[in-house]
Amino acid sequence: MIATQQHWIYHERQEAQLCGQHALNNLVQQHAFSPGDLAEIAFQLDEMELHYMAQNNEGGVSSKDYLKRMAEGSGNVDESGNFSIEVLRSALLSRFNLALPHLKQQGVGDKNDVTELDGFICNRASHWFAIRKINGRFYNLDSTIERPEIISHFNLAVEMEALQSAGFSVFCVVDSLPPPCSSEAMMDLGLPQYWWNEEDLISGKSHVTTRADNSWTKVGSGRRLDGKQPAGGNCGDSKHVSEMTEEEMLQAALAASMEQSIPSSYDRDYELTEEPAEGAPGAVKIQFRLPDGTRAVRRFNSSDPVGVIYAFVANKCSEQSIELRAGFPPKDICTQKRFTIAESNLAGEMVHGRYA
């Protein structure tokens, strides 16, 4: 008897306030974007907006609007991890070359029957969720619901009207999305605990088979993400990766990274110089967004090597290995350590830090 091909639906569940990330990943049916990926895009968009504001003829970096924006922080991601529509649009465009226009944008919804579109991202207040056509059926992939829910073609138009009447903004993908999962090999594109068997969803079974139910996915359980044996030496006592939440996996990866990390060289190669006084000859001011999200402003001598900037950030971040970016668009400045701040044109710049 020849086994029929199984199809799987990818449905990430809510972690923290990262519904925007989950909506994108559910839309493309793979774990394509991490919180760090979207945060980097948010920072680049912030820098672009600040760059334009700094070029205005009404005060530049000293204008009220610029200073207010600096004080308010990012306009594209908040502290809880809620991303703006521009971040989601930029992510989808840069990774998959797909636009995400508003459904009511002229020339979009009025020329297409909604059932002819492949996918939608909906938003109200701080919540984002995706609706996606998979193998000819539409699924509600809201990360706050337990499992994917089928939406009939007949009900889709009604659902869209109801959402917009309730105050939701609906964005759509006009071009073709990446293909859905049609083989177990494709399941490696997503996190194992978020795959659902399509046949079970269609049949309405009370228990729907997930990838975690398959015994073959448990091979290797008992090992930590860094490859080491768990404490106590009993492999069966540890939690398998497929059973972890995204937050637990992130924490495990960070812990492994900390264990394997070695001290960076910039704190040994460069000594933090004394901060020059305000208005002193050659004094320049640099703004920082540190890896923990806090901001700082510090004066340096324009003749100081860029490595001194690394020494300052290392002092603020417990000497963990740091990657620093600056400019427009932001670029890694590690190759400029031995150049002076003046030579690297970093005076007055915003420097972004993140743990390497």
Automatic annotation (TrEMBL):
Residue ranges occupied by any UBX domain in the UniProt entry: 279-331
GO molecular function: cysteine-type deubiquitinase activity
Catalytic activity: Thiol-dependent hydrolysis of ester, thioester, amide, peptide and isopeptide bonds formed by the C-terminal Gly of ubiquitin (a 76-residue protein attached to proteins as an intracellular targeting signal)
Region (Disordered): 218-239
Keyword terms: Hydrolase, Nucleus, Protease, Thiol protease, Transcription, Transcription regulation, Ubl conjugation pathway
One GO location term (cellular component): nucleus
UniProt domain Josephin: residue ranges: 6-188
Active site per UniProt: 19, 127, 142
Entry-linked InterPro entries: Ataxin-3 (IPR033865), Josephin (IPR006155), Ubiquitin-like_domsf (IPR029071), UBX_dom (IPR001012)
Localization terms from the record: Nucleus
Biological processes per GO annotation: proteolysis
Main location: nucleus
UniProt superkingdom: Eukaryota
Nucleus recorded as keyword: yes
EC annotation from Swiss-Prot or TrEMBL: 3.4.19.12
Protein name: ubiquitinyl hydrolase 1
Species of provenance: Cyclostephanos tholiformis
